[in-house]
Amino acid sequence: MGHAVGRGGEVHERGVVGVAAQPLGDPFGVRDDLAGPLPRSEGDGLGVDQAGRTRPSRREDQVRLSLGESPCRVSVGKKFDKLGYHAIDSAELVFDDYRLSKEHLIGGVEGQGFFQATGGLELGRINVAARGVGLAEGSLRLATEYAQVRETMGKPIAQHQAIQFKLAEMATKVEAAHAMMVNAARLKDAGKRNDVESGMAKLIGSEFCNEVVQESFRIHGGYGYSKEYEIERLMREAPFMLIGEGTSEIQKTIISRGLLKDYALRG
Ligand SMILES: Cc1cc2nc3c(=O)[nH]c(=O)nc-3n(C[C@H](O)[C@H](O)[C@H](O)COP(=O)(O)OP(=O)(O)OC[C@H]3O[C@@H](n4cnc5c(N)ncnc54)[C@H](O)[C@@H]3O)c2cc1C
Q1: CB count, 10 Å around CB of 196?
Q2: Which of 1, 22, 80, 108 is the most buried (most CB within 10 A)?
Q3: Is 222 contained in some domain?
């Protein structure tokens, strides 16, 4: 969200500035045109009850996603100073008396917001799983190289069985996380249901990522704590994989929900 807002905080004259999710029936700033201020409680906008319209009954049907365009009152609030993930900024977006018109409804059909958002979550989880695999793979490579260069007790640490076992476990975790990520991605590409598989891929991808990065850090010894070595940055990047697109606890909730549904006892 907010990628069309300038880095200096200015709002672009034209272009998309954000996606807003709202429950239907919430008349907040929704109207047929953008000309002039109207009270928030007006009744002629999208999602507001009109004569003859049947209100959706399911909670899932009561969310809409709309695409906002400037000019409108959007400003960038506090910018977060983060542990890692510095390739993009993360900041508050302030929607002040924000108004949307009918044609900004994503997909053009009301009540699809929940499904659009959850469909995006599956993709996002596979995405984070893949990023976790990449981070883990990079950390494994760094550790494997470093272990052949650093010598203790008269030989490269790669010759110590303790380090060999670490590398073997790390490589196995990378391979397993990669396989699960590819499996989820294939299901998604095939248009098949993949909430459980993408949840599993994200869970393993992020947890294994953190374990592998941590082990690589240990193998680097004191140097791993220095910014001169890339593993220091990967140590700061890895924790976000545990959080972004849903925490591990949430992935477990999704997986077990699917499991209980698949193996539900009849009778
Ligand atoms: C740098 C950064 C960028 C982000 N970018 C985006 C983005 O682009 N788009 C976006 O939509 N979001 C984004 N997020 C939000 C991110 O997806 C959430 O932070 C994440 O899903 C966790 O939600 P939360 O912070 O509300 O944690 P909370 O829900 O407050 O969770 C706190 C703790 O409670 C646990 N918990 C919560 N509910 C349950 C439950 N029902 N059962 C068991 N345990 C539970 C959690 O696992 C966690 O340990 C970003 C976050 C960060 C840090």
Answers
A1: 19
A2: 22
A3: yes
* 243 Cβ closer than 6 Å to some ligand 1 atom: yes
Q: Are residues 105 and 125 in the same domain?
A: no
- Do 73 and 193 share a domain, yes or no? no
The answer to whether position 8 is within a domain reads: no
CB 177 within 8 A of CB 205: yes
Q: What residues make up the domain containing 126?
A: 115-262
What distance in Å separates the CA atoms of residue 175 and residue 182, rounded to the nearest whole number? 11
Domain count of the fold of the chain: 2
pLDDT tens-digit series, residues 75-97: 888 999 999 999 999 999 887 77
Amino acid at residue number 203 = L
For residue 251, the CA-to-ligand 1 centroid distance in Å is 11
pLDDT, average across residues 216-231 = 98
Kindly report which listed range (61-70, 184-193, 208-217) carries the lowest average pLDDT score: 61-70
Location of structure tokens 């499991």:
259
- Pairwise CA distance, residues 19 & 67, whole Å: 5
Whether residue 66 is found in the same domain as residue 174: no
- Say whether 13 is catalytic: no
- Coil, helix or strand for 49? coil
CA 149 remoteness from chain centre: 37
CA distance 213 to 236: 10
Task: Tell me what pLDDT residue 37 has.
Answer: 32
Atom of ligand 1 nearest to the CA of 1: 8
Q: Is the pLDDT of residue 201 over 70?
A: yes
Regarding whether 251 and 161 lie in a shared domain, the answer is: yes
- Spatial distance between the Cα atoms of 203 and 187, rounded to a whole number of angstroms: 17
Mean pLDDT of 230-234: 98
Task: Say whether both 79 and 134 belong to one domain.
Answer: no
pTM of the predicted model, to two decimals? 0.78
